[in-house]
Amino acid sequence: MVTHNDPLEAQITQWRTWLQRRPAIRTADVEELEGHLRDQVAALVDAGLAADEAFLVAVKRLGNLDAVSREFAREHSERLWKQLVVSPGADHEARKTTRMETLVVIGLAAAAGMAVKLPELFGYPHIGSGEGLFDSKAPYFPNLSLFVFPFLAGYFAWKRRLNRTGCVRLALAFTTAALVVNAFPFTPAGHTWTLAALHLPIALWLAVGVAYTGGRWRDGRRRMDFVRFSGELFIYYVLMALGGGVLTGFTVGMFAAIGADVKWFATQWLLPCGAMGAVIVGAWLVEAKQSVIENMAPVLTRLFTPLFAAVLIAFLATMVWTGSGINVDREVLIGFDLLLALVLGLLLYAVSARDPHAPPDAFDGLQLLLVVSALVVDGVALAAIAGRISEFGFSPNRVAALGENLILLVNLAWSAWLYARFLSGRGTFSALERWQTDYLPVYAVWAGFVVVAFPPLFGYV
Amino acid sequence: MNISKDLVAASAGPLVLAILAEGDSYGYAIIKRVGELSRGQLRWTDGMLYPVLHRLERLGYVEARWATAETGRRRRYYRITKAGQAHLEAQRQQWQVVDSTLRGLWRERTQAPALG
Can you give the residue range of the structural domain that contains B47? Predict the structure, then answer.
């Protein structure tokens, strides 16, 4: 319909594009307004005006677009709240794909929910009994990620049409992981058992990432997409967990009111199966909403970066002022690892949401301040620990914690350097972004090392 | 004449409903009809008509449907509903009260100097 040779059509197209950018004005409204514009132009041309004059007059009569769009917004305020709609529009082909995807997601979520019941077939007590998830005689804790990540990876392998080699590699990774955590002769509830259970999800998250990127894991931008996805999935998961908690509470409470005890259903089925299935459903929602709603993780980052920076600086100032050192006990090293991981997360999500071409602003300065103060705090802690490391000896826990500390320290130190270069105008922001995405496999490799090599190295204690 | 914004806003609903009571119509034709009836004295910003129409639609006073016009383009036609007719009747009575009150006042004022 649009002939670009016709200047009037070109003008109308431009005007329409301009109008479509307003969230309160829908496509149908644009069509209605365009019809009005064309009628008006035709009438004016009939009255003797040239086409371009007629266009100008007609646009003027339609009124200031800001004011019109404000009126539309007042009438349709719900349009300013972006709605997450999973089913797409009229296109038949698109509808079929969506229906297919819904079925795949439901199937995979159900499979993940059933996977957590699998150990019961082998005679283990259900997950709600004994010490629950952490029961060292049952295989739930070390296998937790294996109940759901293979299905999650399967969803992305299906969605991104991962090639055969990629699928085989993923299957190999998951099989190896399953063999290691289930066949190693761990001491029941031993340190290496706990470490393996804690580190396996981190290692396998890389496999999910490979599936997420459709096998193009080497592409830095896709890795960054995976980081964004992970943050959003976490937030969606927390929200679903809250909803699930309310559902469980109501289920138990309502049936209790009529004298029926359904706690067994809640602990054996609703909670474990729901917790697994929700991961798949969450991933699906994040996929569907990608471009619809603002990402939440960067928003939380913006909120908490200044607060954490303030806490860290106050901590350092208090330490200097009172002259007291850090009490080095068992938990301190892990505590500082968590602190570094948190600061790294804040950095990562700030990087993920930033326009790499924008010039440095105050928030970048704040970010650097946060990283540097975390480094100083960690340096102080490490110095304190190093002084007594001989006294401690090398237990698997301590080596794992030290290794993690080192990995995070290297990342943050180099990030601080790159950030400082960027702020002083000698480096680019993309260098920092690239550093973060290049570094991602390091975490997974270290976690994999802890799972696979630590048990034999430390005699399965 | 420049009619104040508040008055335009207040009269837009009844005007549109009254025009639709004459027969189904669409945005551009409604604007044209308002211009004709007021002999060009009542001018709206054209774009503002559509939020008004959408509000009337939400309230159930009008129904809208897409149809292909003689120009070959799709056009959104509006039709007044039963509820719209009832609302228009109520509005008519209210406007008549306001109108007759003002008329009465202004007649007194124009007659007062003649008496005195």
Answer: 5-115
Cβ distance B47 to A33 less than 8 Å, yes or no, reads yes
Write the CATH number for B95.
1.10.10.10
Test A39 with B46 for CB contact under 8 angstroms: no
| Interface test with chain B among A16, A25, A36, by most B beta carbons within 10 Å | A36
Q: What tens-digit pLDDT sequence spans chain A (461 residues)?
A: 444 458 888 889 889 888 888 878 888 888 899 999 999 999 999 999 999 899 999 999 888 888 888 888 888 777 776 666 555 555 677 778 888 999 999 999 999 999 999 998 888 888 877 777 788 778 899 999 999 999 999 999 999 999 999 999 999 999 999 999 999 999 888 889 999 999 999 999 999 999 999 988 988 889 999 999 999 999 999 999 999 999 999 999 999 999 999 988 998 899 999 999 999 999 999 988 775 666 788 888 989 999 999 999 998 899 888 877 777 666 777 888 888 899 999 999 988 888 888 888 889 999 999 999 999 988 887 877 777 666 777 788 888 888 898 999 999 999 999 999 999 988 888 899 999 999 999 999 999 999 999 999 998 88
For chain B, the residues whose C-beta falls within 8 A of a C-beta of chain A are: 26-28, 31-32, 45-48, 50-51, 54-55, 58, 69, 71, 73-76
Q: Which helix (H) or strand (E) holds A412?
A: helix A396-423
Whether A78 has its CB under 8 Å from any CB of chain B: the answer is no
> What is the Rg, in whole angstroms, of the alpha carbon atoms belonging to chain A?
28
| Contact check, Cβ <8 Å, B47/A68 | yes
* Strands B62-68, B74-80: pairing kind: antiparallel
Provide the domain count of chain B.
Answer: 1
User: pTM of the predicted model, to two decimals?
Assistant: 0.74
DSSP string of B14-80, one letter each residue? HHHHHHHHHS-EEHHHHHHHHHHHTTT-S---GGGHHHHHHHHHHTTSEEEEEEE-TTSSEEEEEEE
Contact B63, B81 (CB under 8 A): yes
Q: Which residues of A touch B26 (CB under 8 A)?
A: 35
In eight-state DSSP terms, residue A82 is -
Question: In angstroms, rounded to a whole number, what is the distance separating the alpha carbons of residues B108 and B58?
Answer: 42
- Measured between CB atoms, does A79 come within 8 Å of chain B? no
